[in-house]
Amino acid sequence: MTDIKELNERIQRESAFIDILQMEVGKVIVGQKYMVERLLIGLLSNGHILLEGVPGLAKTLSIKTLAAAIKAKFQRIQFTPDLLPADVIGTMIYNQKNGEFSVRKGPIFSNFILADEINRAPAKVQSALLEAMQERQVTIGEQTFKLDEPFLVLATQNPIEQEGTYPLPEAQVDRFMLKIKIDYPNREEERLIMRQNVANLAPKISAVISPTDILKARAVVQEVYMDEKIERYILDIVFATRTPKDFKLDKLTSLINYGASPRATINLALASKAYAFVKRRGYVIPEDVRAICHDVLRHRIAVTYEAEAENVTSENLVDEILNAVEVP
Questions:
Q1: Domain extents for the chain?
Q2: Interatomic CA distance for residues 319 and 213, integer angstroms
Q3: Is the pLDDT assigned to residue 2 strictly greater than 70?
Q4: Residue 250 DSSP class
Q5: Cβ–Cβ < 8 Å for 22, 209
Q6: Would you state the CATH architecture of domain 224-324?
Q7: Is 178's pLDDT higher than 90?
Q8: pLDDT by residue (tens digit) across 34-79?
Q9: Residue 74 in contact with residue 110, Cβ under 8 Å?
């Protein structure tokens, strides 16, 4: 039997660095608390993140700042239609002196990878990235290399400009643990952003934790207590996306093309534990599941043409499901 009180005290001690890390990132990033919190959840639960938002919302800056605060290696790859797999993972180089081929590693060999405008690159590049995301390894020629941990792919896509883009394959989209939608800052936040940039005030970021600390924290996140009732609640939410009729959601049957995969169930459980950890708690409550649910499910529910005609999005469907499924 898990001693909840003891576990809670331990998690509070172990998660103390979260506040320090958020304060450090907050020196540079004004507002965007939701995005920074979700980046931490992805990092703590070893899951990749897809960021969607219009240009200029500090997506690149947030990831770069987070990497600097963790003293991790950061690489930005600008995805373009002419990008080749070798530009991402590396290639074999022929050495004329000794007549042998040697491996030149690509930018993927870092801790934080920012795949900027990921939907601009063709399928071959996507498949090269997919191996790194799923297997945490890269194959160049006949050699396979393990990637350093923590390894996190943070991909951005622009929701407005779809000309010259390749829609991401469903299998790849499903491998992103979270899909974060980023909105504009509010008026006061934007005034602070303007002041900082006009005065050319660029605060210096210090490394407050190391990649080893993140790996230790991940092990502690696994220990966050999840009751059987919460497990059943997560299963109910995911199953409601597949068989809405069983949850008295008959009206959703014609709106959902297909529901969330078992990966959604796993990710919802992991993300809920990480969310509880970020909130300095040693146990998961239903509010943790509800708070992270949209981020885990919005890219995993495919809507029908009928839903599109009625302007119903996957977000609306998640709202309906959360309102209908009984909270433990």
A1: 27-217, 224-324
A2: 36
A3: no
A4: G
A5: no
A6: Orthogonal Bundle (1.10)
A7: yes
A8: 888 898 899 999 899 998 877 777 777 888 888 888 888 889 998 8
A9: yes
Q: How many CB atoms lie within 10 A of CB 167?
A: 9
Helices (H), 71-168: 85-89, 123-135
Residues 6+ apart with CB under 8 A from 88: 77, 106, 107, 108, 125, 128, 129
Return the DSSP state at 138.
E
Strand-pair partners of 114: 76, 154
Pairing of strands 112-116, 74-78: parallel
Burial 70-100 (b: 16+ CB within 10 A, else e): bbbebbebebeeebebebbbbeeeeeeeeee
**Distance (Å, whole) CA 56 – CA 79:** 17
Nearest to 53 by CA among 172, 179, 188, 186: 179
Can you tell me the mean pLDDT for 162-184? 78
Cβ atoms 317, 301 nearer than 8 A? yes
Within this chain, domains 27-217 and 224-324 share the same CATH topology: no
Q: How far, in Å, CA of 291 to CA of 209, rounded?
A: 26
As a dihedral over the C-alpha atoms of residue 57, residue 131, residue 47, residue 126, rounded to 10 degrees, the angle is 30
From start to end of the chain, where are the E strands?
Answer: 48-52, 74-78, 90-95, 100-105, 112-116, 137-140, 143-146, 152-157, 176-181, 256-258, 302-303
Residue partners of 48: CB distance under 8 A and separation at least 6: 42, 133, 152, 153, 154, 155, 175, 176, 177
Other beta carbons within 10 Å of 30: 17
Domain 27-217 sits in CATH at 3.40.50.300
Residues 6+ apart with CB under 8 A from 261: 174, 300
Encode pLDDT of 278-312 as tens digits. 998 889 999 999 999 999 999 899 888 998 888 88
CA 171 to CA 249: how far, in whole Å? 27
Q: What predicted TM-score, i.e. pTM, was given to this entire model?
A: 0.87
Tell me, what DSSP letter sits at residue 248?
T
